[in-house]
Amino acid sequence: MKLLKILLLAAAVAAFVSVPAWADQGVVFLAGLVIIETIFALSWNLLFGYTGLASFGHAAFFAMGAYLTGLALRTALGVPFLLLIVASGILGAVVAAIASLVLLRRTTGIHLAILTLALAEVLRIIISYSTTLGREDGLASIPRPSIDLGFVMLNLSHGTAYYLFLCAIGALLAGLLWVICSGPFGRTLVSIRQDPERAAFIGINVGRYRLLAFTLSGGAAAMSGALYAPWAQIVTPESAHWLHSTQPILASLLGGAYSFWGPLIGTVLFSIINYLTRGLVGASEIVIGTILLIIILAAPSGVAGLLKALGLRLSAGTTNEGKKQ
Amino acid sequence: MNAMDLLFSLTNGFATGMAIFLVAAGLTLIFGILKILNFAHGAFFMIGAYIAYTVVGTFPSSLGLYVLAAFVAGLVVAALGYVADRIVLQRLRDVDEAYMLIATFAVLLICTGVVKIIWGVNYASVNPPPLLDGALDAGGLLMPTYSIFLMVCGVLVYLGLDFAIHRTWLGKLLQSVANDSWMSSLLGINVPVALIATVIVSFFLAGLAGGLLLANQTLSLLLGESYLLLAFMAVVIGGLGNVRGAFVASILLGVIESASSIIMPNMPGMATYLFVIIFLVIKPQGLFAGHQV
Predict the structure, then answer these.
(1) Is the ipTM of this complex over 0.85?
(2) Within-domain flag for B20
(3) HEC states along B143-157?
(4) Domain range list for chain A
(5) How far is B168 from chain A (nearest CA, A)?
(6) Strands A146-148 and B124-125, bridge-based pairing
(7) Residues A118, B233: C-beta atoms closer than 8 Å
(8) What are the tens digits of pLDDT across the range B68-109?
(9) What DSSP line would sit under A131-184, residue for residue?
(10) Quick one: B278 exposed, middle or buried, by C-beta within 10 A (0-12, 13-18, 19+)?
């Protein structure tokens, strides 16, 4: 199983890296968006799949990172791009920490959903009111940066160059999140999701872990936004809209919220469905809605859960493999 | 701001509040009894609006036809609600809250796709019928007759629901189901029938609201979404599942919306969201917590 997983991941990385070699620019652009949205979805799922908190306003963090980076690149202050990504992450994390101090004190479930949604909408209204941030039109023609690594200068102004950079940094961020989630920290979060009361009973500081999870998640979401600004070269208030907040939710559930790589599978599937149904008005909503419904009603663990079940069944068939499980 | 402006903004707010309540009524009913927060409500509201539009066209010939179209929309959406209940809602009774939200969101997506296919993505608009296109001059206070119509509809729906829930046999039965459906079933109440009746009434209200709120707005795919958020907030502030709470909360939100359009005209919706955030942080259980339905 483990070997298979590693092989699959390697294949996924190879597939992503090879996209510019065989596809046209439009598809490369979509593949780049998939990487960005995957990081976004992974950050959301750290909250939902691991900690059991559903945020309906996660687009706010994404927009923060996107606007910060977009603004800095446009004004050409000469701030290194990598530093901007880190700064976006810190901004998102700090805002998430402050917000969760208020939010998580007594609200979970539906109240948390409505509160996060309302907070994100407030941010969106402020953005569309701010002249510095371009009001409803957003920030257009954001230049793509160059990265000075000391010994070599990476010029990312070309689409393919930036795409390969996205692959690298996407893998790095996803890897970091995976390390965080699969260690003792992630396990503690899962125990809180499964039963906060029992977790508290065995001595886990539930409030502090939820706050930490929220902070990390906000930071990662803001970093995905920072990657988005120079890729799309335009950032609009739509990026903070609550419908954008539903994207990581749908992707995570489609792929499987209780599996770390579920959001990746979901985001890829989503983009493929959208791409295949692009000519048919209304078809993508119907297809995605139907698949989501089937998954929630019949297989709440998502595509990743189905694969896992399939894998278990296959390995149980051959006795040697079965014992290893 | 002089007294007349204030009065104008208050009545305007009340009309907006009634528009919100028309959508929130079905939402809070289904939450009170089935414990499902139905994201798809906005979509069915939108379908109701489109059906009524198909019946009356761009220029409704009379007020009677306009109201009739709303009822037709309500009935069709109620039938759709029955189908949605059999396929989806029935299976969501014992699922985690987050999954309910997402499952009903999936229904919302499907409905949006269907509306796109049937009615297209172009904007349409409907004029108010005769009698509702003017304004009434009450001692210097100019009130659009359409606003008065909305107020009357909102109050009627509220009174009807309140009476049905607190004064009729069926309402009391539903209250007992909402409080403890297991105990109710032991006492010989046919709980599944009670639940499906709730769904049908709730969806009927969604379709009816779509038809009644049809005039004076652009009919587009964003229609459901714009009212849905406000209605959601009214339901949460009212104390989830409580019709009286939703009524009071709708008026509050309507007045705040209307006042903020005078004080902060550049930031539509801002005051409402801030109010909701502050309210929920201070009093997350809502206005009338503890009262079922």
Answers:
(1) no
(2) no
(3) EEHHHHHHHHHHHHH
(4) 2-324
(5) 31
(6) unpaired
(7) yes
(8) 888 999 999 999 999 988 888 888 777 777 678 788 888 988
(9) TTTTGGG-B--PPPPEEE-SS-EEE--SHHHHHHHHHHHHHHHHHHHHHHHHSH
(10) exposed
State how far the Cα of A256 lies from the Cα of A266, in Å rounded to an integer. 7
Cβ-contact A19, A166 below 8 angstroms: no
**Is residue A54 less than 8 Å (CB to CB) from chain B?**
yes
Residue B231, min C-alpha distance to chain A (Å): 11
B284 vs A117: CB contact, 8 Å cut-off? no
| CATH architecture of structural domain A2-324 | Orthogonal Bundle (1.10)
Q: How far apart are CA A33 and CA A325, in angstroms?
A: 36
What are the φ/ψ torsions at residue B57 (nearest 5 degrees)?
A: 75, -170
Within chain A, where are the H helices?
A: 2-22, 25-45, 59-75, 81-103, 109-129, 159-182, 184-194, 196-201, 206-232, 242-255, 262-276, 283-298, 302-317, 319-324
| Residue B109 identity (one-letter amino acid) | L
Q: Is B114 close to A282, i.e. CB distance below 8 A?
A: yes
Report if pTM > 0.90.
no
Q: What b/e sequence results for B174-195 when a residue is b if at least 16 CB atoms lie within 10 Å of its CB, and e otherwise?
A: bbbbbeebeebeeeebebeebb
pLDDT in tens, B132-165: 777 777 766 777 888 888 888 899 999 998 888 8
Nearest alpha-carbon partner for A192 in A68, A86, A47:
A47
CA distances from A108 to A103, A242, B43, B235 (A): 8, 18, 26, 16
Element (H, E) at A318: none
- Residue B280 has its nearest CB partner, among A111, A242, A282, at A111
Q: Tell me whether residue B107 is in a domain.
A: yes
What residues contact residue B151 under an 8 Å CB cut-off, 6+ apart?
B14, B15, B18
With contact defined as beta carbons under 8 Å apart, do A224 and A263 qualify?
A: no
Do residues A231 and A143 touch, judged by C-beta distance below 8 A? Answer: no
Q: Which residue, B50, B70, B71, B57, is CA-closest to B114? A: B50
Q: Which of B108, B236, B284 sits opposite A106 (nearest CB)?
A: B284
Under 8 Å CB pairs connecting chains A and B tally to: 119
Tokens of A145: 């940066």
In a domain, B229, yes or no: yes
Residues of B in CB contact (< 8 Å) with A are 37, 88, 91, 95, 97-99, 101-103, 105-110, 112-117, 120-121, 225, 229, 232-233, 236, 240, 266-270, 273-274, 276-277, 280-281, 284
Question: In the predicted model, is pLDDT for residue A321 greater than 70?
Answer: no
Hey, what are A287's tokens? 């297809």
CA A185 centroid distance within chain: 19
Contacts of B99 in chain A (CB under 8 A): 253, 296, 300
Number of domains in chain B: 1
Q: Judge whether B144 lies within some domain.
A: yes
DSSP A20-42: HHHS-HHHHHHHHHHHHHHHHHH
For residues B235 and B28, the answer to whether their CB atoms sit within 8 Å is yes
Q: Are the beta carbons of A70 and A235 closer than 8 angstroms? A: yes
What whole-number distance in Å separates Cα of residue A19 and Cα of residue A37? 17
Q: What is the pLDDT of residue A323?
A: 40
Q: What domain range includes position B219?
A: 27-234
Name which of A58, A105, A296 to mutate to probe chain B: the one with the most chain B Cβ atoms within 10 A of its Cβ: A296
